[in-house]
Amino acid sequence: MTAQPVTAQPVQAIHVQGLEKSYKKLRALRGVDFDVARGSIFALLGSNGAGKTTVVKILSTLLKADAGRPPSTASTSPRSQRTCGSRSASPGSSRPWTKSSPGGRTWCWWPVAAPEGGRQIAADLLARFQLTDAAGRRVSTYSGGMRRRLDIAMSLIGNAPVIFLDEPTTGLDPQSRVEVWNSVRQLAGQGSTVLLTTQNLDEAEQLADRVAILHQGRIIANGTLAELKQLFPPAKVEYVEKQPSLEDIFLAITARPHRQR
To answer: Spelled out in words, what is the top-level CATH class assigned to the domain 12-89+159-255?
Structure first.
């Protein structure tokens, strides 16, 4: 008799079971269940009012659930997770770092005392997100994509293993959105677990290892993109040459070097 190989199960960074939350008579979450594997990108997809932000607030300990199993210990410690929302948290009048003592510089927005070696941590994060050249400028002069990359960089203070991104590309132009996508891929590539909420189907398709669809407070589908595609039979269509989208054209044109007139 030949022994069957044992398939190793992925280590879960987040485990949620039966999560419920109501705001007076409004039931925002109606028993939400999902797991997020360590080092993966998990997209929570849903329209406005589906409950995405409520889930993120509960997982990041900013809101208490009415019922259900809380997320894993690794993701509930404020020091082991960070949240980046759809609006920049970076003060526009500030710079990415500011003098805090005669001996060095630290991030000016840290809610707690800067850790030892803060200057080097700040420099490393600025370099990681291609912001070193803009370090001396006020944040108000940054593009939307630069601000969002700075927010994500700030969320990595303390090497948090779990990052929550609540609609991080809302309101960004196509080029800035791609910048943020590249940053998110970099996070996962270096071992962070990313839970991403979005209304953008293309964003979920581009980034996520797994996608869960949240609708009216419930998870109605959860799987890889390939698994979700199996839920619907392929359509039979005649061959039509694919035309570039406006986004394709915009990104191609703006990526080219141009002469000053």
So the answer is: alpha beta
